[in-house]
Amino acid sequence: MRDTRESRLLLVLLVAVAFALITVDIRGGEDSPVDGARQAAATVFGPVEKGVATAVDPIGNAIGAVRRSGESHDQLKALERENQELKQRLGSDDRNQSRVRALDGMLKKAGAGQYGIKGAEVIAIGAAQGFSWTVTIDVGSNDGIQRDMTVLNAEGLVGRITTVGPHTATVLLANDPDFTVGTRMEKTDELGFATGQGDQPLSVKFLNGKAKVKPGDRLVTFGSRAAKPFVPGVPVGEVVRVDPSGGDLTRTVYVRPYVGFTKLDIVGVVVQPPRTNPRDTVLPNKPKPAPTVTVTVTPKPPNENGDGTGNANANGNANGNGNANGNANTDGGANNGNPDADGQ
Q1: Burial code of 220-254, b = ≥16 C-beta within 10 A, e = fewer?
Q2: How big is the CA angle at 286 (ends 186 and 183), to the nearest 5 degrees?
Q3: Cα separation of 109 and 322, whole Å?
Q4: Residue partners of 337: CB distance under 8 A and separation at least 6
Q5: Which of 3, 173, 205, 271 sits at a 20 to 30 Å CA gap from 163?
Q6: CB 202 within 8 A of CB 195
């Protein structure tokens, strides 16, 4: 329809009629004069509205579901990120707790031996000098570290300082084939020299070829003059195998070191030796043996009856002078195995 004066007047008239009908409907309430017309319109257009609603609602629901799915996906992603962060924190906490325990154990070792130590962290494995079993630590000459200082951790002897830079130092590990340290056996004081063998137990040659050594015996460092490169009393390891001396002047045994050289983290450099030799005080406490369970069996005394034959009342009624089977009575002999009170 073209935009003409007549069409505009018709539009204004229709709007006015609509407002008038709305006003009459509102004022009429339930008795509105247009109620019938509304019901008729509902009867005609109701099925159409229902069909349209049925067709449209799934689409609306689907759109809502997609929208909610997107929101859930975002929430899921957020939860996954949070979970990952928590796992990382947990792993970090576990590692920190492990390092705290290692540091605490090392400080206890240093306290027991009266060693003045400088804490350090292993930051690299191997060194440019070509040693096969070395680590690099994050302290150097600026921290008071010098060549030929003893390095230990919570378990025992780690090695000795070989090269020192301003901020780092190289440690030759005790299991390196070029590493040798003087040892002393717990209690017996037998002296020897331990040499590294890589991932094998340390080889220790005792000066006394007839020294009494057995698996489980423990060794500590003997100490060097002026405490360089080794301070005395640092735990070395336990004997695991003893070779027969065979009449040699020296005797070789194999010692499992206390330190795990493949998992070093926190170590301590001994910057001040002890005033006196700690001897065996730094060694860990030996585990207590499990108690032995002893079972004592007490034999039962034999059963007794009137004639001492050991046959007890079993299958009858005793009358006071014997038993039901006629094993014994007190007043007379058995009567076919059935005694009575008078011995008849």
Answers
A1: bbbbbeebbbbbbbbbbbbbeebeebeeeeebbbb
A2: 25
A3: 80
A4: 325, 326
A5: 205
A6: yes
> Residue 83, CB half-sphere, CA atoms under 13 Å: how many?
6
Please give the Cα distance from 339 to 333 (Å, whole number): 7
Question: Per-residue confidence of the chain (344 residues) as pLDDT tens digits?
Answer: 566 777 777 777 777 776 666 666 556 555 556 556 545 544 544 444 445 445 544 544 554 554 454 555 566 677 667 667 766 655 566 677 888 888 899 999 999 999 999 999 999 987 545 557 999 999 999 999 999 999 999 999 999 999 999 999 999 999 999 999 999 999 899 999 999 999 999 999 999 888 889 999 999 999 998 899 999 999 999 999 998 766 667 778 999 999 999 999 999 999 999 999 999 999 988 776 666 666 666 666 665 554 444 444 444 444 444 444 444 444 444 444 444 444 44
